[in-house]
Design a protein that fits this description.
Elements: H1 2-30, H2 34-48, H3 83-88, H4 90-93, H5 97-123, H6 131-141, H7 143-151, H8 155-171, H9 174-187, H10 204-222, H11 229-241, H12 283-291, H13 298-313, H14 323-339, H15 354-363, H16 371-383, H17 392-410, H18 416-422
Helix pairs in contact: 1-5, 1-6, 5-6, 5-8, 5-15, 6-15, 8-9, 8-14, 8-15, 9-10, 13-14, 14-17, 16-17
Length: 423
């Protein structure tokens, strides 16, 4: 009976996976991937010595640098990633955009599934066999995942690195973990918050791995036409983007300067988007909607308060927590800070939850009481099966965060590595 149940689970999981993949490949064919376009152009600009941030396309230039989502006459491009992101995505910049579009849609599935499968293989037991199909299948079933693929977003990269982080910490592969941590921070400096709870558990090999990535990154940039200048441009562009936090697009200085060609690189859909529903799950944006304009220091105050709350709650626990559990705590610290930043936060970022949720299910037991129901309600809200508020995803993420905090607080002092090895 047990083997039959498991077989049905796996059949259902494969069906969800196949249907999701076919749906997303259709979306890749029908829509141009408005968020992938600016990332591909950022990589191409880095290779060609153009500014990825301050050199939008103009008539007469190669159309491979044209992004029709950039308002005509704007002084900024739409690329907001770090130069390191542009460097890593150079392979997509070297191929025709059609190839990049389909290739990235397929690669997104691999980046979601491979790290989760490795986590399940390493941490899993015969009693938790259902955790991988539940998390992976649930993620693929989410509207937020299809939004991620349709827009051509890259948060699946960060989610994959976070998932591998749990694995490397548990395996004590500190050098590789240092490489991973440095890569995440170079992708997005705010990911440094993930590793704050681990600060007293870092090793020399972690620092060596991080230093190696930094030095190799510097060498790679020095081999490119503009050297390290894109990092200075990134700093200036982010300062400029803070002025457009509500519009989420650069302002046009001359809207009648020219008209984009109707077809660019053989595609006429580079401004097309599927009308699927999504939300801005920024607590800061929600507060502004109810309270009006907030002082500039509000975000910093809320981030400090969140960090202080976690410090108080875990003051007697964190020194004895396993390193992987500390990374899970760091994820909650990072998430809370991101929610109160004065920038939009859309549904496609949910993919970053996949690794933390799978790790939680594989290595922890949820406390007795309302916590399992809260976790389940979070799943229902994020998947989109229940519509309670205009910010269902935000509510679901908050429920998951509370459940994780409650679980970590009730976990026995004995290290989770010991619990796993004695199972």
């Amino acid at each position: 009976m047990k083997s039959l149940t498991r077989r049905y689970w796996h059949i259902a999981f494969l069906a969800v996976l196949l249907l999701g993949f076919l749906m997303d490949m259709h979306l890749a064919r029908r829509y141009g991937g408005i968020d992938l376009r600016d990332k591909v152009l950022g990589s191409r600009s880095l290779l060609e010595g153009r500014s990825p941030y301050f050199d939008p396309w103009e008539p007469g230039e190669p159309e491979r640098f044209a992004d029709p989502m950039v308002p005509v006459g704007a002084s900024l491009t739409r690329f907001t990633g770090t130069p390191f992101q542009a460097l890593v995505m150079i392979p997509l910049g070297l191929v025709p955009y059609d190839v990049a579009r389909y290739g990235w849609a397929a690669a997104s599935y691999l980046l979601l599934l491979i790290p989760l499968y490795q986590l399940a293989r390493h941490f899993g037991s015969d009693h938790r066999w259902w955790a991988f199909p539940l998390v992976a299948g649930g993620m693929v079933a989410c509207t937020s995942w299809h939004l991620h693929v349709e827009r051509g977003q890259v948060y699946v990269i960060y989610g994959a690195l976070i998932s591998w982080g749990f694995l490397l910490l548990h395996q004590r592969r500190d050098l590789l973990f240092g490489v991973l941590a440095a890569g995440l921070i170079l992708f997005k400096p705010t990911y440094a918050l993930l590793f704050v709870p681990l600060i007293l558990h870092t090793t020399r090999r972690m620092w060596l791995g991080g230093l190696a990535v930094a030095l190799l990154s510097v060498a790679a940039f020095l081999a490119l036409p503009n050297g390290l200048a894109p990092w200075m441009e990134y700093r200036d562009a982010m300062a400029e983007w803070t002025r457009y936090a509500t519009t989420a697009e650069p302002v046009s200085l001359d809207p009648d300067a020219f008209v984009y060609p109707p077809s660019i690189e053989g595609r006429e859909d580079l401004t097309s988007m599927h009308p699927m529903e999504f939300e801005n799950s920024s607590v800061f944006a929600l507060a502004q909607a109810f309270l009006g304009e907030l002082p500039g220091w509000t975000s910093s105050l809320l981030m400090g308060a969140w960090g202080l709350l976690l410090l108080i709650l875990f003051r007697t626990k964190w020194r004895s927590m396993s390193r992987a559990d500390l990374l899970l705590m760091g994820f909650i610290l990072w998430l809370g800070c991101m929610l109160v930043l004065p920038v939009p936060r859309f549904d496609y970022q949910v993919v970053q939850w996949a690794g933390p949720l799978l790790y939680l299910l594989l290595l922890h037991r949820l406390p007795h009481g309302p916590w399992p129901a809260m976790a389940g309600l979070g799943v229902v809200l994020v998947v989109g099966a229940l519509d309670l508020l205009p910010v269902n995803v935000l509510l679901g993420e908050c429920l998951w965060s509370i459940v994780i905090m409650a679980t970590l607080l009730q976990t026995p002092v004995r290290l989770q590595e010991d619990l796993h090895s004695s199972a």
